[in-house]
């Protein structure tokens, strides 16, 4: 059977990329592996850590590249769900991030927290405990 999908990466559209880098690079340790300018600012950034990718693109860059998409996406926030091996390590790095939903244990077996990143998007970090036995 052939592969149907090789990879999926979230693209978060933001007004300005630099404020979001405070979370993704400074707090969570993602590395910038590609960037594209848009005028005097960053228009696009690809961030990677441990095989996980997040793309940030400015709304100005989106409007220049795909105006029809930009017109329909204007104020939409995305929701990114990230499974992590150690939630306490993430909590130690989040600092003064805006917590939308504090740490909780879910009915589906995860311990998680949801924040709003500086670009306005919701990010849940979840740790799943293996079932006993």
UniProtKB/TrEMBL annotation:
InterPro entries (alphabetical): Glyas_Bleomycin-R_OHBP_Dase, Glyas_Fos-R_dOase_dom, VOC_core
Domain VOC positions: 4-128
SUPFAM superfamilies, sorted: Glyoxalase/Bleomycin resistance protein/Dihydroxybiphenyl dioxygenase (SSF54593)
Protein name: VOC domain-containing protein
Species assigned in the record: Arenimonas oryziterrae DSM 21050 = YC6267
């Amino acid at each position: 059977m052939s592969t149907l999908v090789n990879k999926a990466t979230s693209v978060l559209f933001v007004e300005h990329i630099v404020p979001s880098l405070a979370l993704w690079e400074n707090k969570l340790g993602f590395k910038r592996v590609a960037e594209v300018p848009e005028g005097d600012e960053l228009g696009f950034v690809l961030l990677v850590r441990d095989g996980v990718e997040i793309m940030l693109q400015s709304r100005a860059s989106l409007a220049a590249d795909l105006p029809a998409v930009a017109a329909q996406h204007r104020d939409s926030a995305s929701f990114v769900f990230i499974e992590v091996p150690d939630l306490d390590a993430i909590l130690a790095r989040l600092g003064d991030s805006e917590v939308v939903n504090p740490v909780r244990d879910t009915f589906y077996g995860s311990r998680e927290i949801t924040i709003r990143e500086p670009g306005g998007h919701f990010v849940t970090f979840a740790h799943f405990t293996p079932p006993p036995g």
